[in-house]
Write a structure and sequence with these properties.
With 414 residues, the protein is of the alpha+beta class. The protein has three domains: 215 residues, BirA Bifunctional Protein, domain 2 (2-Layer Sandwich); 57 residues, no CATH class; 92 residues, Anticodon-binding domain (Rossmann fold, 3-Layer(aba) Sandwich), CATH 3.40.50.800. Helix 1 runs antiparallel to helix 5 and helix 5 runs parallel beside helix 12. The radius of gyration is 22 Å and the shape is globular.
C-alpha cells in the first residue's frame, strides 16, 4: 500500500515556496517597520489552554482540536490558533506588566472538512499588541493591515469592523436575542440551538439560511452599544475611508469566545465563499482567564494559504529606524494620519510609534536604548507651530523643525 499524506495536510514544493518566501519576507518587513518583534511558541500545548481561551462554545474546541494523551496521560493538543500560546508564554515569563509588540508565523491544526482555502494543517501569521489600551493601537493595526495589502498588491478587499461593547452590553443583547429566538427553536439548526445556550452572540455568525432569515428582524447588537464605542467605530471608518473600503458590520462577532471591544475582518470576493483572509480584535480579559495578571491586548491573524491566492508582490530592502514620539494630549486620528503617510512614503524604514503618554525624556531614553537613528517628536510646541521636530539620535544630535511636506520628503529620502 502506498503511504500518502494525511487528508487536508498538503505538501509545499520548491515551486510553491518561491511565492511563500516572498510573502514571508514581506510580512516580516511590514511588521518590522512598526517595531514589532517575532515570537515563536510550541506546536503542542496543554489542551486546557485552548479549552480556557478559545471557549467551549466554539467549534474549534467542540470538534476541531487535534488532541491526544501523552505517555503521562496528560491531554495535549496541536495549536489551532496563535494568540492563546503567545499570552501563555508572556504569563509564564511573568511579563504581563510590560508592553509588547509581537508577531508570529507557523502551522496551525484544525480537524475540519478540507476545502478551497481551508486545510487541516494551515499556516497563519499574526500580530499581538499586549499592554496597549483601546485607542491608538486600533489605528496602528488597521494601518498595518492597509500597508500589508498595499505591499502584497492586493487591491480588491474590504475591512469590516464592529465593537462588542462591555460585559453589560453583551449580557443585555444576549438576553434580548434569547427572548426573540426562543419561540422559533423548532426552525433553528441544532448547532445554533447549542450556541443559544452556550454563547448566544455567536448565532450572529451562523451560516444557516433559516437562522439568518430570522436574524433579519431580530434585535440589533448596535442598538445595545453605548455612544462611546459607536463614536469610536465611526471615527475609524472616517479616518481610513479614503485609503480603503471600510465599513461597520454589526453582525461581525468573530469565531473565538475571548474577543472584547473592537473586532475586524478583511475579505476579498476573489476568494469565493471562504472570503476572509485576515481577522482579529481586542481581547483584554484573556490574560486573567489564563491565570495571569490583567493585560490589555489586541491582535490579528492572517490565513497565509488564502493571501497567497491574492498577492502580487516584490521583496523589500532594509533601511533605518525612526522613533515616532507624541507628548501631551493628541488628536489620535490626526497623529496617526501622519504616521501612516510616513510609512506610505518609505516602508523600508522602521517607524516605531511608541503609543505612549510617558514624558519626552523617558521616550527619548527608550529610543536610544533600542538604537533608533532618528526621532520625530510631536508635542504642544510643535502643534502650536504646525511643525514637527526631526531629531538625529546619533552623537551629533542635530535637530530641526519641519513643515509636513518637508518631513515627508526627508523621511522618503532616508
Amino acid at each position: 500500500m502506498d503511504i500518502q499524506s494525511l487528508r487536508g495536510m498538503p505538501d509545499l514544493f520548491p515551486e510553491d515556496l518561491e511565492k511563500w518566501h516572498i510573502l514571508e519576507k514581506t510580512l516580516s518587513k511590514v511588521f518590522h517597520s512598526c517595531g514589532t518583534k517575532e515570537i515563536r511558541t510550541p506546536l503542542l500545548e496543554s489542551t486546557e489552554l485552548f479549552n480556557r481561551s478559545v471557549g467551549n462554545s466554539s467549534d474549534i474546541v467542540n470538534k476541531e482540536l487535534y488532541s491526544f494523551l501523552d505517555r503521562n496521560d496528560k491531554s495535549i493538543s496541536l495549536r489551532p490558533e496563535g494568540s492563546a500560546s503567545v499570552i501563555r508564554a508572556i504569563i509564564q515569563k511573568k511579563q504581563e506588566h510590560e508592553k509588547h509588540k509581537l508577531w508570529y508565523q507557523g502551522p496551525m491544526f484544525r480537524y475540519e472538512r478540507p476545502q478551497k482555502g481551508r486545510f487541516r494543517q494551515f499556516h497563519q501569521a499574526g500580530v499581538e499588541y499586549l499592554g496597549y489600551e483601546e485607542g491608538l493601537s486600533e489605528y496602528e493595526l488597521i494601518s498595518m493591515v492597509i500597508q500589508l495589502n498595499q505591499q502584497l498588491g492586493i487591491k480588491k478587499y474590504k475591512i469590516k469592523i464592529n465593537h462588542l461593547g462591555d460585559k453589560d452590553t453583551k449580557e443585555n443583547f444576549c438576553n434580548a436575542l434569547k427572548l426573540f429566538l426562543e419561540p422559533h427553536l423548532d426552525t433553528l439548526h441544532e448547532k445554533d440551538i447549542a450556541r443559544l445556550e452556550s454563547n448566544p452572540l455567536r448565532i450572529l455568525d451562523s451560516k444557516e439560511e433559516a437562522t439568518q432569515n430570522l436574524l433579519a428582524t431580530a434585535p440589533r447588537f448596535q442598538d445595545f452599544l453605548s455612544e462611546s464605542p459607536k463614536t469610536f467605530l465611526t471615527n475609524i471608518v472616517q479616518h481610513f475611508t479614503d485609503q480603503c473600503d471600510i465599513a461597520v458590520d454589526s453582525s461581525l462577532v468573530r469565531g473565538l469566545d475571548y474577543y472584547t471591544g473592537l473586532v475586524f475582518e478583511v475579505v476579498s470576493e476573489d476568494l469565493g465563499a471562504q472570503d476572509a483572509f485576515l481577522g482579529g480584535g481586542r481581547y483584554d480579559h484573556l490574560s486573567k482567564e489564563l491565570g495571569g495578571k490583567g493585560m490589555e491586548a489586541i491582535g490579528f491573524a492572517i490565513g497565509l494559504e488564502r493571501i497567497i491566492d491574492l498577492m502580487q508582490i516584490q521583496p523589500l530592502q532594509n533601511v533605518q529606524k525612526v522613533a515616532f514620539i507624541t507628548v501631551g494630549e493628541q488628536d489620535q486620528q490626526k497623529t496617526y494620519k501622519i504616521a501612516h503617510a510616513l510609512r506610505e512614503a518609505n516602508l523600508s524604514v522602521i517607524l516605531d510609534a511608541f503609543l505612549s503618554s510617558a514624558t519626552l525624556k523617558s521616550q527619548l531614553k527608550r529610543a536610544n536604548k533600542h538604537e533608533h537613528h532618528f526621532a520625530i517628536i510631536i508635542g504642544e510646541e510643535e502643534r502650536e507651530l504646525g511643525k514637527y521636530l526631526w531629531k538625529d539620535l546619533s552623537a551629533q544630535g542635530d535637530q530641526e523643525l519641519l513643515h509636513f511636506e518637508a518631513l515627508i520628503d526627508k523621511y522618503k529620502n532616508l
